[in-house]
Amino acid sequence: MKTCIFCQIASGDVPTGIVFEDEETLAFLDHRPLFPGHCLLIPRVHVETLVDVPAPLLAKLSSNARSLAIAMEKALGAQGAFVAINNRVSQSVPHVHVHVVPRTKGDGLKGFFWPRQKYRDPEHMGEVRGVVERAMKEMAEGDKQ
Question: What pLDDT, on the 0 to 100 scale, is given for residue 115?
Fold first, then answer.
């Protein structure tokens, strides 16, 4: 897609700090990092959201996100990594991308993305669990057809 900044990066039309690339994916430094080394991992093909990613490509993205997290520990002395995908809500670019952020204890990111909530009561938790479980079963049954 010509208007998508990530597609322009993937095609080489927009230069950026590429740290990894293969035939299907590309990882580059975020221009507004949470910490130095914060990368965005994208598929080379335009796919807007996580739910649109074909399973083989999702496996590749997951594997490469894992490798980036390991590389951050080795190269940057990180103690771990935060790996996240915004899906529609808070997705700044409508091209699926995985944030891989190097982390160290005491880096100040305690709960920085979201406020935690509690269920109203155990019954509410059970209701939510039940509807999600049913949706998962329906989707699995649909996949078998």
Answer: 63
Quote the domain boundaries for residue 47: 5-108
In this structure, are 124 and 102 located in the same domain? Answer: no
User: Is residue 143 pLDDT above 90, yes or no?
Assistant: no
Confidence of residue 111 (pLDDT cuts 50, 70, 90): low
Tokens read off for 135: 């949706």
Q: Are residues 125 and 73 in the same domain?
A: no
DSSP state of 54: -
Secondary structure (3-state) at 102? strand
Using the structure block, give the residue that is written with the tokens 């594997």: 63
Percent of the chain with pLDDT over 70: 93
Indicate which residues carry an active-site annotation. Answer: 97
CB atoms within 10 A of CB 68: 22
